[in-house]
Amino acid sequence: MADNNQDNNNPKGKKPTLPPGYAPKAKKPTLPPGMEAKSKKPTLPPGMEKGKKPTLPPGMQPAGKRKPAMPPGMKAGPKGAKPAMPPGLAGGDGAPSRKDFASDQDVRWCPGCGDYSILAGVQRLMPELDIPKENLVFISGIGCSGRFPYYMNTYGMHTIHGRAPSFATGLKASRPELDVWIVTGDGDSLSIGGNHLIHILRRNLNVQILLFNNQIYGLTKGQYSPTSERGKVTKSTPFGSIDHPFNPIAVALGADATFVARTMDRDPKHMKAVLKEAHGHAGTGFVEIYQNCNIFNDGAFFEFTERATKSDRAVFIKNGQPMVYAGGKKGIRLNGFSLQSIDLEGGDWSKDDCIVYDETSMELANIVGRMFWQPDLPRPFGVFYRTARPTYESLLHEQIGMVTNKQGNGDLDTLLNAGDTWTIG
Ligand SMILES: Cc1ncc(C[n+]2csc(CCOP(=O)(O)OP(=O)(O)O)c2C)c(N)n1
Ligand code: SF4
Ligand SMILES: [Mg+2]
């Protein structure tokens, strides 16, 4: 989907005066020794090589030639045929099933994108939540993740960049009976929407936030994002990113979120369980989802998500249970204020030495949520933190009730004309 946010404020014909040090466009920059541009053509992402038909991001395919790639279990059949449903979800007995939550829109993410599995996971979860469809609202910002509401057969809003939390706040505050879900990307929520994200978290509206983290700007074709690792080479960081990236879990904990979790697109069972927990939480349920962008950042999380390495590189935290991983062969212990990976088979350590996870401990969440950079520690997944705090909308309506009891119903005209007023002009 192309974006045309270009400024055009140059008077016609006038050449802009460039500040010192900015060479006119045609001049090639002189690169420092060892960094000269190669005459080599850039390596294109898989499926985009010359001669091959390109696999383009959503909304960029030539009109009329769009064939949606379907996630497993959703293979398109002959036109008009009902999609095959996974076992146990076929419906037919009048009970809602996954297909009741799939809209009639063609899904336009790139074939193989992790967004498909998140969509399927959310659609599968919906029947279990038993929420009337007319009370469900999915609100997104801008990015590939922003297309999510089109594919849900519920109410939805595709809003403006980074501002889904603001729309959701307005909706939830005025219609608290609605079940509101925010869908956002790493760029949408942590670049342009960084401010909006932290404030919805501290306010604690009773909504769910699904942050699709693919460590890249997908929709705009592969620029680095605030979660891209240092050194990341992209079109906007041709010599490698020099930015220190965000760890979204630490951001959420720092903003005093009341529910903080991480899951991954490639583990549908875990993802569904975590989303269900987030939904059951009375407050903002923040869930970071590792999502593979196979076109512009393929394999960013494979270390944690793929069978060959997952067991050794991912630890699944469970409340009240020792932090063990690698099939029970390794564990995590607290060594002072630091974390240490311990071998549970060598005889020196046992399960009793491992941290027993307590999701109500802010201190522990802050330590375990910071397992991010240390190469000898696995990456944690699951619920990091959960606490009870009144929701914003409950406090708001309580306050409105209290003031109305005291002062009676307000009147907008009277309010606008109250106090000092000025006539201008
Ligand atoms: C105000 C504004 N600024 C910039 C853009 C261009 N833009 C569109 S999507 C996007 C980044 C999206 O990245 P992310 O949130 O990570 O979503 P993804 O596409 O990876 O799912 C940007 C910068 C825009 N549409 N509007
Ligand atoms: S996130 Fe990446 S793979 Fe997914 S639709 Fe966007 S560009 Fe394509
Ligand atoms: Mg992204």
What is the secondary structure topology, with strand pairs?
Blueprint: H1 115-129, E1 136-140, H2 148-151, E2 155-158, H3 164-174, E3 179-185, H4 186-192, H5 194-203, E4 208-213, H6 248-254, E5 259-264, H7 268-280, E6 285-290, H8 302-305, H9 307-313, E7 314-317, E8 324-325, E9 330-335, E10 338-343, H10 362-368, E11 379-386, H11 392-407, H12 412-416
Parallel strand pairs: 1-2, 1-3, 3-4, 4-6, 5-6, 7-11
Antiparallel strand pairs: 5-11, 8-9, 9-10
Summarize the structure in words.
- By secondary structure, this protein is of the alpha/beta class.
- It has a domain at 98-298: 3-Layer(aba) Sandwich (Rossmann fold), CATH 3.40.50.970.
- It has twelve helices and eleven strands.
- It has helices at residues 115-129, 148-151, 164-174, 186-192, 194-203, 248-254, 268-280, 302-305, 307-313, 362-368, 392-407, 412-416, and strands at residues 136-140, 155-158, 179-185, 208-213, 259-264, 285-290, 314-317, 324-325, 330-335, 338-343, 379-386.
- The strands form two sheets. The protein has an eight-stranded mixed sheet, with helices on both faces. The chain has a three-stranded antiparallel sheet with strand order 8-9-10.
- Helix 1 packs across helix 7 (268-280) and helix 4 packs across helix 5 (194-203).
- Mean pLDDT is 84; it is low at 1-92.
- Bound molecules: thiamine diphosphate, iron/sulfur cluster and magnesium ion.
CATH class type of the domain at 98-298: Alpha Beta
Note the gap between the termini. 45 Å
> Any idea of the CATH topology of the domain at 98-298?
Rossmann fold
Name the CATH architecture of the domain at 98-298.
Answer: 3-Layer(aba) Sandwich
Flag low-confidence runs. 1-92
**What characteristic shape results from the CA principal axes?**
globular
Kindly report the name of the CATH homologous superfamily of the domain at 98-298: Thiamin diphosphate (ThDP)-binding fold, Pyr/PP domains
Strand order of the largest sheet: 2-1-3-4-6-5-11-7
Roughly how many Å is the radius of gyration? 25 Å
Number of continuous helical runs: 12
Averaging pLDDT over every residue, what do you get?
A: 84
Share of β-strand residues:
5-15%
